[in-house]
Design a protein that fits this description.
Blueprint (H helix, E strand, L loop, with lengths): L2 H4 L7 H9 L7 E4 L2 E4 H17 L8 H21 L1 H25 L3 H28 L3 H6 L13 E2 L2 E2 L8 H9 L2 H7 L2 H18 L2 H20 L7 H19 L3 H9 L4 H20 L23 H9 L1 H24 L3 H20 L7 H26 L7 H5 L1
Antiparallel strand pairs: 1-2, 3-4
Length: 426
Amino acid sequence: MTGLARTPASSLPVPVIALAIGLLLPSTASFYVGDLRIDGTRLVLFAILPALLMRAMSGRFRWQYFDYAILGHAIYMVLAMMVNQGLFGGLKSGGVVAFEAMGGYFCARLCFTNIGAIQKFLKLMASLYVVIASLLVVEIVTQKNIIRDIFSAVADADFNLNSKSRFGLLRPVGPFPHSIHAGVFCSAFFAMFWMGLKGGGRLAGSLASIVGVGVSLSSGPLLALVMQVGLIVYRAIMKTFKGVRYWRLLLIAVIGAIAFIETFSNRGFVLFLVQNVTFDPWTGFYRTLIWDYGMNSVVAHPLFGIGFSEWARAGWMHGSVDTFWLLTAMRYGLPCLILMVAGIALIYRNVAISAREVTDPRWKGLCLGWVFAMTAFLFAGITVHFWANIYVLFFFLLGMGASMSEIMLKAARNGREPQPKKARRA
């Protein structure tokens, strides 16, 4: 019996279902245990922790190089915070951030043990996307946050804190701390829906993703969505040319474009992207200032960063840093960022090898869908900072890619990969 025949019988693990729902619980609705703030996502992570520990100690999980790199990133975060805020302060503030990262990552790593579970998870997310996109549409039309109205009765929640207007419309936030996070969430799975699902799930998830990104009125998520669509269209066109290594051509073109901008622009590629990919020229200018002052902070504190301390900037600038990659280096130091980038690169390598070795179109679609979605997520991090539920989602997607590649490589090399339909008929 082939692996394809086995996957439909696979069940979706309870921790994954719990975390998927937990990602949609408002992060601004929280309570305190001592000095520790517990929001919906953290509460779910604590609840599923025993199940994850049991899976980790079952003896079936095998550590890979990328697992060590991601774990090293989390440990270094705690170490950097201890250097900046003392032993107990660092353990508390650094530990909770590391817990969110590792909770999301290892939930996917430990729970996804077959492709059937991943496909069922995508179907679940497609359904949740429809719900969230509908709520965002209702919010932008009526200017009422239904989720806020529900949770404000039971928790201390301020959903209007980051609700701002653009083009004369109130940008909806849904259950997220900021409208840009609503857009990032809705863009995260588009390519995986389109390339990894079929039928109603594919259509519903993809359309909900487009609607959610559109009503968020945010340039970062829109860039992420357009990038995924572009990659899907590029592959569909280039597949018609037999024998052409079209991914190598695309990589050469991207490197050439970056080299051109670095050579002939006085701002460099990152600042060019930061300043031009925005609906508001003032936002682009302000982000440039953030990068200038932020890079000065990284150069001044390269090893352990500055923790949660104030960073040197102009007196009129606010304290938020709207870029995930820069803020990671600023808070925890360059080694922490390098460990995370190394882990991501190793996972990419594994997924790329899987896409090359498997022959089943659905498995190839899942691999490439993950690569497209994750690449867009990484680029969004240049103009968006990830925190709360989106931060957990980011590491969950990394763990999902790591597990998916491991499952596929093992099946392909052991001869248990499902064969294309023509081969099975023969």
